[in-house]
Design brief:
Blueprint (H helix, E strand, L loop, with lengths): L1 H6 L5 H5 L5 H14 L2 H23 L2 E3 L7 E3 L9 E5 L2 E4 L8
Antiparallel strand pairs: 1-2, 3-4
Amino acid sequence: MDALQEEFRGMTPQQLAAPVNTVEEKWKLLPAFLKVKGLVKQHIDSFNYFINVEIKKIMKANEKITSDADPMWYLKYLNIYVGMPDVEESFNVTHDQCLHMSVG
């Protein structure tokens, strides 16, 4: 964090909050962003946001399915979630497929 403080020393809060307009200026922000947040953390946060927020928005946009055969019949999705992975070994026999690590 000291490197970031040194880099932006002397700038007013208004300068720091000003919009970044050019692509060249945006590319200068990438190293600072990676120092603060890290690439892996950004990917995990992005994935979690997709699973917790975006996938629900996609479902909501397509929540009602109607029937061509009977216009009075429809199916409406109320919720969606992503569960833990599992593998079906045989008929109705499953086991969790979690990541297992051993340290040696």
